[in-house]
Amino acid sequence: LATGPRQNNSIFYEIRTYDIKPSKMKEFVEMVNKYFHLRTAHSELVGFWSVELGAMNKVVHVWKYENFAQRTAVRHALANDNDWQGKFISAALPLMEKQHNEVAYLVPWCQLGKPPKEGGVYEWVTFQMKPGGPALWGEAFRAAINAHINTGYTKLIGVFHTEYGLLNTVHVIWWNESPDHRAAGRHSAHEDARVVAAVRDSVRFLESQKNMLLIPLQCSPLK
Fold first, then answer.
1. Quick one: which of 31, 61, 100, 116 has the most CB atoms within 10 Å?
2. 61 pairs with which residues across the strands?
3. Tens of pLDDT along 184-198?
4. Helix intervals (H) in the chain
5. C-alpha radius of gyration, the chain, whole number
6. Alpha carbons 76 and 74: distance in angstroms, whole number
7. Residue 12 to residue 150: CA distance in whole angstroms
8. Interhelix angle 193-202/134-150, nearest 10 degrees
9. What DSSP state is assigned to residue 218?
């Protein structure tokens, strides 16, 4: 398998995806908005979203850790936090159908970004790549990402590749002003020869892809 440039620090991101019981989604979101400050007191939340399109009754949240030792300490502290366990966990767990987590790194050529303003929507695109990591597909994938950025219709937030979970998975987070703004931009991009050429080159390394439209929750730092 290919190896190549990696980040020069130990920072990683934990991506958590919860499937909520259909009849309990409203209740779950209300609980998050009311009590999630108890969780963010322990570690840094990057973003927390509910899925609007591409899946139903699902939430996604991303946490930043300096290293695995920090995550271990945080998980231990949470297990012993009576407020968090009593006010949120004990009430929230019965509302969930499934939980899934992944550990991911930012690709070497990407910094975590922020939207230019609040009030937009996020697109979460998951690519299943051929084995080899960023050293294999990184340059072609970067060219495809930059081609979309250069159209000016979208804002890149981050590109992550998995370390734990389903390997050779890449998650890309985009920001747009609205779903209609995203749709109009996508139509324009599909007619842009530069975008078409870059995408055609990158799909040599692609197995599958899926996308979701996300709405940030009240507690989300990325809004």
1. 61
2. 16, 48
3. 998 888 888 989 999
4. 25-35, 37-40, 68-79, 82-83, 90-92, 134-150, 179-190, 193-202
5. 18
6. 5
7. 27
8. 160
9. T
**Alpha-carbon 44 to chain mean position:** 14
- Please indicate, yes or no, whether the overall pTM of this predicted structure exceeds 0.90: yes
Q: What single-letter DSSP state applies at residue 51? A: E
**What is the Cα–Cα distance from 152 to 172, expressed in whole angstroms?**
17
Residue type, 201: D
Q: Is 210 helix (H, G, I), strand (E, B) or coil?
A: strand
Percent of the chain with pLDDT over 90: 85
Say if CB 28 and CB 202 are below 8 A apart.
no
Indicate whether 2 pLDDT > 50: no
Domains of the chain by start residue, with CATH? 12-105 (3.30.70.100), 106-216 (3.30.70.100)
Report the distance separating Cα 154 and Cα 146, nearest Å: 11
Structure tokens that stand for 26 in this block: 């409203």
